Amino acid sequence: MWKAMASVTGVVAALAYPAFVYVGLTRFGLTRAVWLVVIVAAVLAAARALSPGRRRVALLLAPPLTMAGLAVLGAWTKQPRLLLATPTLINGSFLLTFGVTLRPGAQPIVERFARMLDPGLTEAEAAYCRQVTKLWCWFFVLNGTAAAVLAVGAPLSWWALYTGLLAYVLMGLLMAGEYVVRKRRFGKFGRGPHDRMLAFLMAPRAGRS
Question: How far apart are CA 76 and CA 109, in angstroms?
Fold first, then answer.
């Protein structure tokens, strides 16, 4: 129960962070309060990474510790734009997590997730999972770069709009597009309504191929 609550809290915090920073810095001038919240959130994330049973602790600790360091540095130098580095750090963390699984002999992270649902993946499906893992790495590179450019040289409202909304829209489009391509390519459909609809739409094409 507590793990589920922590996960939900983490997702809500990630979604609300850009709006929180924007409102805190532009409407109320609560720079110190914002720094404090970021530091507390980073410490909680680090504590969660150290919980028993966690693997790859170093990778999990890197983002919150870096975020806490930036928060302390920003509070000391009075540079509020350092708060805007958090989305870039998160993308960098995901890039590292996905990227290390692409090394020779390792199992790509997308394949790990896929085998949880279907342990009997074919060689073609495993190769596809590697390509999808690479695709996500490129997404994290581009998304993190966009967030960094907006943080450095754009109005705060642009940064908040992109990191708080548009980035999630792009992520959702990528997930949806990959899902459709996978179903079209391998023809494995579940019993859910979305899978039944895709099977209906794709069946005539599959019959002619």
Answer: 38
Q: What is the pTM of this model?
A: 0.77
Residue 10 CA to chain centroid, in angstroms?
12
Provide the residue-wise pLDDT of the chain in tens; the chain has 209 residues: 444 444 445 555 566 677 767 776 776 655 666 666 666 666 666 666 555 554 454 555 666 666 677 777 766 766 767 778 888 988 888 898 899 999 998 999 999 988 888 888 889 999 999 999 999 999 999 999 999 999 998 998 999 999 988 999 999 999 999 988 887 887 776 777 777 777 777 766 444 44
Q: Which of 184, 99, 176, 198 is nearest to 144 (CA)?
A: 99
In this structure, are residues 87 and 162 in contact, taking their beta carbons and an 8 Å threshold? no
CB–CB of 98/74 below 8 Å? no
Which is nearest to 89 in space by CA: 109, 61, 50? Answer: 61
